[in-house]
Amino acid sequence: MTEMIAYVGLDAHSTSISVAVAWPGQDKPEYLGKIPTNPAAVARLIGKIAAKAQLLRFCYEAGPTGFALYRQLRERGHDCIVAAPTLIPRKPGERVKTDRRDAVMLAARLRAGDLTPVWVGDTHHEAMRDLVRARDAAVRTRRRVRQQICGFLLRHGRRYNTGKPWTRTHRRWLFAQKFEHAAHHIVLGEMMRELELADERVARVELEISQRVGEWSMGPTIAALQALRGIGLVAAAILAAELGDLRRFKNARSLMAYVGLVPSEVSSGARRHKGAITKTGNTRARTVLIEASWNYRFPARRTVHIEKRSAGASDELKELAWKAQQRLCRRYRHLVLKLRKPPAVACTAVARELLGFIWAIGQSVRPVALRAA
């Protein structure tokens, strides 16, 4: 006797969850209505559906509600997937979108096997990802304040042309600026104070990241990635937080497509055209890779800084990192000097190949079990 399977689609929001169930033998899923977004209401829903089916499978779209619902359903022994919203098949021409329609659609897609699940890490991984993203938010705040200071000075005809900006010399120059009106001194002083607070915030979060990676299951991966040129502790932590366990990607090409570093293509018949990169997937990881690829503009060399970062890596990983540096530096020169590609295009191509080496490192370094705090 086969088990009766109920495919449950959940359209989850902050205060309510719309529920639809696709029963075996029924063409269209049944809409069960809305329930409050709280564990007790979800538990009652599970009991109601479990009275009619032996096996329950749930799904909902990834979104701002996070993975609390996913973990509640999994803890109760039920299968649940969090679907990637951009990969859900949708009928062209549909212009009506409601909670009821979304729940029914999710239940039908789940039964048909058309949903692509996102990777869900454990609670500690999610906490570290939030910490890494807090650093990203702090950096964006600091960048905004810097732009405000530059815009303020530009309006008053003040330009700093004697070196790199935001160094100690530049900051001394900022504090030495004189204005005719006292209000302008107050404005600049307030913005400089805000910049100091933003700098302190970035430093605090980066310190927390450096102190907590040793307690993280991705700690060995982060240590190994630092053997690569252009990837320090923060960059490695961002990649580990956003990409997770790299062994879940069957090959390097799938990882490149996940990050959006593969070229787009429009081909039909004898016509074949490849365009810019797709820019799908995780934006933070792609940004880190592009920034790291600029380090390969210069000739390959074993620097003291890289050797210090990779002190704990095995000889095999160090050799792989040196092989990556030689290849990528040569690749950049070939693209720019031989093929006359713009530097930005060349760095994007280098970033794609760098991701291939990162995938190879991820296959040889296994995440460790979380140690007790």
Topology overview:
Elements: E1 5-12, E2 16-22, E3 30-36, H1 39-50, E4 55-61, H2 68-75, E5 79-83, H3 99-112, H4 123-155, H5 168-175, H6 182-212, H7 219-225, H8 233-243, H9 252-259, E6 263-268, E7 271-277, H10 283-293, H11 304-309, H12 315-338, H13 343-364
Parallel strand pairs: 1-4, 4-5
Antiparallel strand pairs: 1-2, 2-3, 6-7
Helix pairs in contact: 4-6, 4-8, 7-8, 8-10, 9-13, 10-13, 12-13
Structure description:
The structure is a single chain. The protein is α/β, with parallel strands linked by helices and 373 residues long. It folds into three domains: 5-112, Nucleotidyltransferase, domain 5 (2-Layer Sandwich), CATH 3.30.420.110; 123-215, no CATH class; 219-364, no CATH class. The protein contains 13 helices and seven strands. It has helices spanning 39-50, 68-75, 99-112, 123-155, 168-175, 182-212, 219-225, 233-243, 252-259, 283-293, 304-309, 315-338, 343-364, and strands at residues 5-12, 16-22, 30-36, 55-61, 79-83, 263-268, 271-277. The strands form two sheets. The chain has a five-stranded mixed β-sheet. Strands 6-7 form a two-stranded antiparallel ribbon. Helix 7 crosses helix 8 and helix 9 (252-259) crosses helix 13. The two termini are 48 Å apart. The model has no long low-confidence stretch (mean pLDDT 93).
